[in-house]
Design brief:
With about 375 residues, the chain is of the alpha+beta class. It is built from 9 helices and 21 strands. A hairpin with a 4-residue loop joins strand 10 and strand 11. Helix 1 runs parallel beside helix 6. It is globular and about 65 Å long. The relative contact order is 0.20. The model has no long low-confidence stretch (mean pLDDT about 95).
Length: about 375
């Protein structure tokens, strides 16, 4: 009998799981239930950085496994993601940050993350236009960027092509549990989607679903701001960050600069994915970007938006089996840096859903609030 798998959430993790499931087992019946449209929440609003540099030790292996796949991901999915490997550069603008950089590099290199220390001259060659105060930085050649919505659509297209059933505009009331096992997902209209395995990858809405079946998660919803400037001539190849500053800066293929870095927005309606940008965050994001990359000073802002992200106390995702509930998997709490991990996370969820071995490493399994390091 074909294995029935219901996936709650049409963001990148759910779509990647659907793609991998149908690729790994063409006989599996895979249904994705998305309450809005695919990519409408955090996945589509992401800065779309693809990095290994600066990861927590617990997720480095996952990041390296994902980054190994990104160069060929368009071919795998038979759809464009907008990916390009322009490298990543984290700069030091003061003496204290520059003094701390060698130890930061050594710790990551010991874990096989290919970062290198670069002096001021090399940093300016990698990213012409950096602030004159730049003392140097850390470069990771395998880092890069993609396009958020293009990547969401690429996974959705690939999953559909392989036979997954994607339902948009389909809310989920809850999980149906019988004798300690999830047997169905209850839709918003009260109908049940019977399943052998349920995968909950509902981002900032995951916590409520899990709490209702006695498996509360330490997840907090936050809205993170993104700013987009008017287009400029191509000048910046790497993704630029800075020690001790909130900044993720990249130039898109069309010439616009995308400015992130974790500046908060205000959630106005969690259930309906509504937010409001904060003047102080917009100002702070623009000023920080211009301090690191002065060419942005006075650059016209085209638009801004936010995505509702699910954060854990230790900023590490929770992936895999839920103890005490058979037939239930989760992928949640990516804390604003899950985009790059989507190829590897989908592969792991597929393997677990099909009863196969999956090497996840330590530190990312299901954990309660008291188990999260802070």
């Amino acid at each position: 009998m074909a294995r029935r798998i219901a996936i709650v959430g049409g963001g990148l993790m759910g779509l990647s799981a659907a793609f991998h499931l149908r690729r790994d087992d063409p006989g599996a019946r895979v249904t994705v239930l998305e309450h809005d449209r695919v990519g409408a929440a955090a996945s589509g609003a992401s800065a779309a950085g693809v990095r290994a540099m600066g990861r927590d030790p617990a997720e480095r292996a996952l990041a390296l496994a994902s980054l190994a796949r990104w160069p060929d991901l368009d071919r795998e999915l038979e759809a464009p993601t907008g990916y390009r490997r322009g490298g990543g550069l984290r700069v030091a603008l003061d003496a204290a940050a520059w003094a701390a950089a060698p130890a930061w590099v050594a710790e990551q290199r010991a874990a096989s993350v290919p970062v290198e220390l670069v002096d001021a001259a090399a940093a300016h060659r990698l990213a012409p236009g950096l602030a004159p105060s730049c003392r140097g930085g850390v470069h990771c050649a395998i880092d890069g960027q993609a396009e958020a919505l293009a990547t969401v659509q690429a996974f959705a297209t690939a999953a559909r092509r392989l036979g997954a059933h994607l339902e948009e505009g389909t809310g989920v009331r809850g999980l149906v549990v019988e004798r300690g096992r999830v047997v169905a997902v209850e839709r918003g209209d009260g109908a049940r989607e019977a399943c052998d395995v349920a995968i909950v990858a509902a981002g900032a809405w995951t916590g409520a679903l899990l709490a209702a079946v006695g498996a509360p998660l330490p997840i907090e919803a936050r809205a993170l701001q993104m700013l987009l400037t008017e287009p400029s001539p191509a000048a910046l190849a790497p993704v630029v960050g800075a020690f001790d500053r909130r900044l993720s800066l990249k130039q898109l293929d069309g010439g616009a600069y995308l400015i992130g870095g974790g500046w908060p927005a205000r959630i106005t309606d969690h259930a309906r994915n509504r937010y409001a940008l904060l003047d102080e965050s917009v100002k702070g994001g623009l000023e920080t970007a211009a301090a690191v990359y002065p060419a942005l000073a006075g650059r016209a802002l085209a638009r801004g938006w936010a995505g509702l992200e699910a954060f854990t106390p230790d900023d590490l995702p929770i992936i895999g089996l839920v103890p005490g509930l058979e037939g239930l998997l989760i992928a949640a709490g990516f804390s604003g840096h899950g985009f790059a991990l989507s190829p590897a996370v989908g592969d792991i969820l597929s393997r677990l859903a099909l009863g196969r071995a999956a090497a996840l490493g330590s530190g990312l399994a299901f954990r309660q609030m008291s188990e999260c390091k802070t």
